[in-house]
Amino acid sequence: MLSMLEDYRNQVLETLFGNVEHCIVVVDREGCISYMNESYCRFIDVDQSTVKGKHVTDVIENTRMHIVADTGEEEMADLQQIRGDYMIAHRIPLWENGEVIGALGMVLFRDTDEWKIMNTHIKDLLLELETYRNQMQQQNGAKYSLHDIITSSPDVLQLKEKIRKTAHSDVSVLLRGESGTGKELFAHSIHHLSERSTKPFVKVNCAAIPEDLIEAELFGYQDGAFTGAKKGGKPGKFQLAHGGTLFLDEIGDMPLRAQVKILRALQEGEIEAVGAVQPQEVDVRIIAATNQSLEEMIQEQRFREDLFYRINVVQIDIPPLRTRRGDIKILSKYLLQKISDRTGKRVEEFSKAVEDVFYKYHWPGNVRELENVIESAVHMTDREAVQYEDLPAHLQKESAPSHEAETLKQIVEETEKQAIQKVLKETDGDKSLAAKRLGIGKSSLYDKVKKYSL
C-alpha cells in the first residue's frame, strides 16, 4: 500500500513539474531528495534515477534546501552559485498538519539570454564588492564576515541572527566557547555589521602578553615612562581602536590590575597611559572572548565581578563541533576546497571511510582541529580523494575498531580492509604487486576491492 502511495505521489510530481523548464527539487524533512525533475538533472549532469534518497548536499552544490526543511523558513529570490554561475533560487517549506515535512526548491533563469546578461552583471558586482572588502580589511583589520561562518546547524544559525540584531548597537559582547570554535570569526562579523565597520578592529590576545607589559600594551606609555621606553612613547591598543572595536581574546587570562583599568575605560570612557599625568578619552566597543568559566573565576577572586557584568551585556555561546555533527560534512567540503586552492593540489573529495571517521570523531579542538587534519591529509595524499591512510596517526588510532558490540566477522573485515588500503597505497594502486605482498591471489584481491569499495 505504501509503495502504491509513493508511486502515486511521484506521478503527481512528474505531471506537475516533469516538463517545465525551471529546475525543481523536493526534499524530505531530513534533507534527502524525494524528487528532482529532468530539467534540473540535465542542468547539473546527474542521472535522474540515481538521485532519489541522496542527501541534497551530495547532489546540488551550495544548496540550502536542507536548512529550509529544518527551519521551516522560506527563502525567496536567493542567489545560488551552481556550476560557476549565479542563479535565482526559491526555497519553500512544505507543511502538513502544522509540521514541516520537507521543502520545494526552484531555480529560475537557468539558461535565458536575460539571465546570462544579469549573471555577468552580478559577477562583476561581486568582484567589485570583494575589492572593497579587501580594502576595508586593510584599513580596519577585520577580515571575516558573517558569510564566512559556514553552518547548517539551527543553533549556529540562531546565533548569526542574534548577531544581526545586536551588531549595530554599541553594547559589549561576550563570546563563549571552547578553543577552536571560531570565536574570532564571530568577533570580526560583529564589527563588520556594526556602525563602526569603517573604523579600526584591534585584537588583543590577553594570554600572550606578559603580565608586567599588559598595561603598556593596552593603554600605551609616555616618553621616558620606564627604562627602555620608546622615544616619544607608544599608543596602546585602546588608542589604536579609538572609534572602532577592541577584541579582548582570552580575557580570563587578564591580570586583576589590568581589569581595574579596563573597567574604568568602560565606565568613564577614559584611560591613563603608563607615565601619563592626565587621562585620555577613548571611544571603543568591547568584544571579549573566553573558553573559561568566568563565574568560577569570580568565586576564586581571579576575575572582577563588576567587569564581568560590564562585558557580558550580550552573551554568545558557540557550541562545540561535536554537538553539531551536521556541520562536519559541510565544513569539511568547504575547508578542503579552501586548502586545495591554497596549496595548488587537486584534491576534490573524501573517501567514505574518511567521512565516517570525521563523523564519529569527537573533535576536542573543534573547527581548528578539523582544518589542521584536512590540511595534513591534503599534503599526505597523492590522489584526488583523501583516503583513510592519509589521515594523521591519532585519528586513525582513535577510529580503529574498538571490538565492543562487534562480531568477530566485523572485526576481521575492518582489519582486512585497512590492510588492503595500506598496501594499495604503498604500491601506487598496482594490484598485482599488492596481491603478492598480501599473499593472496589477484582475483581474490579484486573481489575484496570490490567488496570494500576501495
Write the layout of secondary structure elements.
Blueprint: H1 2-17, E1 23-28, E2 33-36, H2 38-44, H3 48-51, H4 65-71, E3 75-82, E4 85-96, E5 99-108, H5 113-140, H6 154-166, E6 173-176, H7 183-193, E7 201-205, H8 214-219, H9 237-240, E8 245-249, H10 256-268, E9 270-271, E10 280-281, E11 285-290, H11 294-299, H12 305-311, E12 314-317, H13 326-343, E13 349-350, H14 352-360, H15 366-380, E14 385-386, H16 393-399, H17 408-426, H18 431-438, H19 442-451
Pfam family, one: HTH_8
GO molecular function: ATP binding; sequence-specific DNA binding
Keywords: ATP-binding, DNA-binding, Nucleotide-binding, Transcription, Transcription regulation
Key descriptive features of the protein:
454 residues; alpha/beta; Rossmann fold; 5 domains; 5-stranded antiparallel β-sheet; 5-stranded parallel β-sheet; 19 helices; 16% strand; globular; disordered N terminus; sequence-specific DNA binding; transcription; transcription regulation; AAA_lid_NorR; Sigma-54-dependent Fis family transcriptional regulator
